[in-house]
Every structure is written in C-alpha cells, then in structure tokens.
Amino acid sequence: MALALAPMTRRRAMPKAVGVDLFAFMAIMTALIGVQTLLIGIIALEIRPGGQNVQFVPSGSGGTNHGKVANYVLLQGQGRLELLAYGQRQLAALGSPQVEAFLNRIATARVPQFLVIGVRPGTYGDFNQLRAQAEAKNIALGYEPLDPQWTIEPPPAAAGAVQP
User: Fold this and answer.
1) Pairing of strands 140-145, 80-85
2) Average confidence score pLDDT of the chain
3) Contact 83, 154 (CB under 8 A)
4) Quick check: 136 pLDDT over 60?
C-alpha cells in the first residue's frame, strides 16, 4: 500500500509591510497646536473689551495733513464735546462761543493746523454739525471712529497747537 502524498505546495512567506513611525510627526503637530492655543489665549487676554486707554496721535504717514499741527475734538453726544489739548480736556457744548473761538484760533493760526474729530456711535449728527462749522472756516479735518468703551487720553502738548 502506497501512501499517496499530497503534492506539497510551497508556502511563500509574505514580506512584512514596512511600518511608518508617525510618533515624531504627531509630536510635532501636538507641539504646534499647543503653541497656537497658547498664543490665542495670550492675545485674547490682552484684547479685553472695555477699559482700554487710547491716545490720539498723528500718523506721520505723509497724508494730506502732513506737516500740519493736529487739534482734537471728542464728541460725547447730545451736543456735548471735549476739546483735547496740552494734556488736558475741556468740556464744551456744540455751537457754543467756546467752540467757535477754538475753531477761529485754528483757522487763523500762523502754523498750518488741522482738526481731528473723535466720533463715538450715536454722534453722527453732532459730527456733521461740527464738520460744517470747520469747513466753513476752511479748516482741514479728519475723523476717527471710536469704540464707546474706550477712554481717550488727551494728547501731549504739540508745538504750534492752539489752546482750547
């Protein structure tokens, strides 16, 4: 009796797949995400709403009022405004003789002057009225939109600026 042997098939060994080590990549990605999260947190803490002090300063970027001395008015709304100069603030009413005299001093100053008007939300009507007064006296002007929570610091004394 002869035993029939099954034909022997050769087993081929499957080559082992070469693995890719992703640990280094994941470590770098985790570090980058951590640093970005930290930066966002720091920036968010520095940009808190409210309580921010702002000071008007001329940009010096060579615009249309380059070489002129800046004078500042801050509109408070309901006809109230502040004249900011020489590190101090003076309250006045829109259309008052005090504002009229301030605009006259700007218009007749020997050194070229311009007027910067700080406009808070809700003061657009006051802005138009003050702008019309300044334009009637041929005063160069600009405006700066302001956030309602900002505290505006008076600018330092500028050589040639008129007294409020």
Assistant:
1) unpaired
2) 79
3) no
4) yes
Residue with tokens 């600018």: 155
Instruction: Identify the H or E element spanning 107.
Output: helix 97-108
130 closest CA partner among 63, 66, 83, 67: 83
Q: What is the pLDDT of residue 41?
A: 86
CA gap 116, 83 in Å, rounded: 10
Q: What is the pTM of this model?
A: 0.62
CATH topology of domain 53-153: Nucleotidyltransferase; domain 5 (3.30.420)
pLDDT digits (tens, 9 = 90+) for 1-57: 555 666 666 666 666 766 667 788 888 999 999 999 999 888 877 766 655 666 666
Rg (CA), the chain: 35
Which position has the token pair 């301030």?
102
Please give the backbone phi and psi of residue 31, each rounded to the nearest 5 degrees, phi first.
-65, -45
Return the closest-CA partner of residue 153 out of 56, 61, 78, 76.
56
Q: Dihedrals φ, ψ of 70, to 5°?
A: -90, 140
Q: Which amino acid is at 4?
A: A
